[in-house]
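hey team, just a heads up i'm posting the complex here instead of the shared drive bc the drive is being weird again. everything in one block, sequence lines first with there labels, then the predicted structure for the whole assembly after. its two chains so it's a bit long, scroll down
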Amino acid sequence: MSADLHYPFPPADAYRLNRCLYAIKSDPEFCARFLADERAACAEMSLSDREADAVARFDRDVLVGLGGHPYLVFMADLRLRMAREPGALEYF
Amino acid sequence: MLIGAFACAHTPQLLIRPPTEDRDLVLRVHAAFARVKARLCALRPDAIAIIAGDHIEAFFLDAVPALAVYVGAEASGTFGPYRYRLPIHESLARGILEQGIERGFDLLYTQGARLDYAFYVPLHFTMPDPAVPIVPLHVNVYLPPQPTPRRCYEWGAALGEILRGRPERIALMASGGMSHFPGTDRYASPEVEHDRRLLERLQAGHGREMASLTGEELDKTGNVELRTWITLLGAVGDVSADVYCYEPSWHHDNAVVEWRP
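-- predicted structure starts here --
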């Protein structure tokens, strides 16, 4: 497999970043803590300052550049938007 | 016995529609799902075996199975306000697991992993009433190295033999695809023409060709999730596909397809 895949192998040094994105996506209690206090939630996940800055700004390119899995970045972002703007959505 | 086979995409915008999603398109896909539901009601399955790719929900980086079978009493998952608890057909699930292992497929099994939306978005719209027990079958699509398309097809072929040898009436469903690139700079440009040609090949009954695709080709065309369809194709063989709908949105190619194996 070449290195320029859309979904590359997640680098081991991004494990904590990916775990944080996974928790935003899949752990509603963590997601609520993140919405209440982003910095404290990032500290809970032992993120570096650089990673915490990227998560706070939620810049896709920076997060992926740091080794964040693109799908986790995508769905964590969607979950945060769902939580922040629930009225904009139509539920079937 | 294998009594029916279906494949579809499962974009969450079909369940929870943001303002950026074309409402008429969403409703047309729902109409295609309603046709699947009517077919399932007519087929009267004892179980629905559903092949889907986990979106890093059940299986995070702590343990990444290539292929897995849910063999608990039930499977549950949560998406926004939706709470799903779906009964599993336990004896069929165990049969698939045990016979799969016997046939040389080193399957992971779980009795407690949560269920990803790839499984329940299609079932939300297609599950007969009263509900039919399911067997969730996971294929790793998002965490490289994924199983090769060839391996998926071979597993599907073995799965098809297993299902045909069972006493239950079993419908098989694949949930995944088509072209989309979530979280990448290609998000707004799915490979619409590629998928159109692919569906034409399936309509012509050339499903076996999908086994010759490479993992790189699937990634390049936004089709990592097509591994779920390829697994199903291994089970149904070169049967002509009936395409209920093909509805490319600005970010995701939706399709709903049936095969009569």
